[in-house]
Amino acid sequence: MSELAPGPIEAQVREDIAALGDLPGITASLAELAYRLAESLDSSEKLEGRELAPVAAQLRATLEAIAEAVGDDDDPAIAGLSTPVHGGGGTHLPAAVGNPAEAGQADAGAAGR
Length: 113
Fold this sequence. Notes:
This protein is mainly alpha-helical. The chain has one domain. The protein is built from 4 helices and no strands. It has helices at residues 8-19, 27-42, 49-69, 76-79. The radius of gyration is 14 Å and the shape is globular.
């Protein structure tokens, strides 16, 4: 059984994480989580619009945690992860991706599921 090639988001996440070198501690597990989240975004036709924003926000938080753990959080590309991107070219994600609260997705907790 052959695996499908990763989509564009997962491919970029894999490239970015590989560029960080060796991953200390639990960072390797966080990397696997990042790959899975990116895969979900690549196959976002399976996600409803309201489900897309929290997945993107979780991917961003996971990448920030990985960068912090390897001491690469001063890289401008990593610093940009905390800045929401609205519009622009390429794949358009809703503006609420940068701020899940705008989409009504602010930490609903277990009661909101």
